[in-house]
Design brief:
Length: about 50
């Protein structure tokens, strides 16, 4: 568990399957599936 963590001047880079997942989610979002992607992030934020 993270507590009082800070990430300063951090850059994230996704490789391989993670990169393809982000690209796929981006395509879905750009294609109009905004509710789906927003719900995925909501579920992540709330631990579902």
């Amino acid at each position: 568990m993270f507590a009082d963590s800070q990430f300063n001047k951090c850059q994230w880079q996704f490789d391989d399957a993670a990169s393809r997942t982000v690209a796929f989610m981006n395509a879905l979002y750009q294609g109009g599936a905004t509710d789906l992607i927003e719900q995925i992030f909501c579920d992540i934020k709330t631990g579902k």
